[in-house]
Amino acid sequence: MKLSPSELEKFVHRSLRELPEAAARPGWEARVWAEIGRRRALPWWRQSFAAWPAAVRASFLLLSVAAGTALAAVRWQGWPLGATLLRLGGEAAAAVAGAVPSAYLYGAIALAAGGYAAIVTIGAAAYRALSIRRPA
Length: 136
Hints:
The protein is mostly helical. The protein has 2 domains: 28-99, no CATH class; 100-136. Helix content is 73%, strand content 0%.
């Protein structure tokens, strides 16, 4: 049976409307409201940027623009600070990479890949073990 896109949409919509309402676990609603209240009680500097007082936000933006302008002026005056730091960092990285034997580098890559695979495997096994519904 092949449905047109509009028929498929109607079928899915009807099927989803027939599902029962999902209820929160007991105690979750109270915990959510308690967390909302706790976050509202935080001082302004511990909240998001939008909750900061307007004067503080304006000062922060002005200081940010001033810092960016100062950095651009340093570069424009012919002081290639950023380029010098990048060049020195690249030279240091190249010196370290040249001093390490290639077998160590391959071993480190294999160790990192094995660790990543182990973490993914353990996470998948834990998810499966914790998500299986057991009869009460």
